[in-house]
Each structure stands twice: as C-alpha cells, then as structure tokens.
Design brief:
The chain is built from four helices and two strands; from the N terminus they run αααββα. It is mainly α. It has a single domain, classed as Winged helix-like DNA-binding domain superfamily/Winged helix DNA-binding domain (Arc Repressor Mutant, subunit A), CATH 1.10.10.10. It comes from Streptomyces daqingensis.
Length: 127
C-alpha cells in the first residue's frame, strides 16, 4: 500500500501531457480537448490549473478556444506545420533545453571546482 499521496500535476505538466497526446495523434486537427471542469476533477486539480495549461497550448499555437464550446486542436493554415508536427517539435525543443540546462549546470560546477583549486584561500600568502 502506498502511503504517499499522489502529487497533482501543475499547468506546465498538464500542457506537456496534452502536447504529447497531440504529437502522438490522440488529438488531431478539429478534435475537442477534454472539458476543463471534468478534466480538472479527473486530475484532482483546480479548474484554473487546467485553464492555464490550455492557455499555454493556445500561446504555442496548438489549440484555439471557441467561446461556449470548448478548446480545439487547431487546423494548420496553408504553409503552416500541422499541430501534430508542431507539438512534436516543441517536445523535442523542450528536451534539448533540459539537456542543455543540465550540461550548463555541470559546467558551472566544474568552474567552481577549478576556481577553488586556482584561487588562493583567505589567510594564505598572496590572498
């Protein structure tokens, strides 16, 4: 039995999940995303959290809201990438940013280690 309560996803994580589903073709052009209230209840989060996730997807150009009807996966305009390819590229880009962030953190740590070796400490001659 798991005594730890399951962590609730934040808006960024919900948007990433929906983006992955769009990239996988689970939701295609013209498909309606789950209603905000029902989806929030299913995930155990507030309606605002789901609305923020959907807003992020709108800002990325993957979905559009239709007043009184819901949120739908956008159909690509002529010359635009389709939502599936756009979502795939966004996911790839986010993975690359995460990889680069990790590499940058490693470089910063190595610089600190080098500075500790090269820089004289207080109280030593030349300090």
């Amino acid at each position: 039995m798991d005594s730890q309560p399951k962590r609730k996803p934040n808006a960024r994580e919900i948007a990433a999940r929906m983006r992955d589903e769009i990239a996988a073709g689970t939701f295609g052009p013209g498909d309606r995303l789950p209603g905000g209230r029902a989806y929030a209840k299913k995930l155990g989060v507030s309606l605002m959290t789901v609305q923020n996730a959907y807003a992020q997807l709108r800002e990325e150009g993957l979905v559009e809201g239709v007043a009184g009807s819901g949120t739908y996966v956008r159909d690509a305009a002529p010359g635009e990438l389709g939502p599936r390819e756009s979502a795939r590229r966004l996911t790839d880009l986010q993975g690359e940013v995460a990889r680069l962030s990790t590499e940058l953190a490693d470089v910063v740590e190595r610089i600190k280690q080098l500075e500790a070796v090269v820089s004289p400490t207080e109280g030593e001659p030349g300090a």
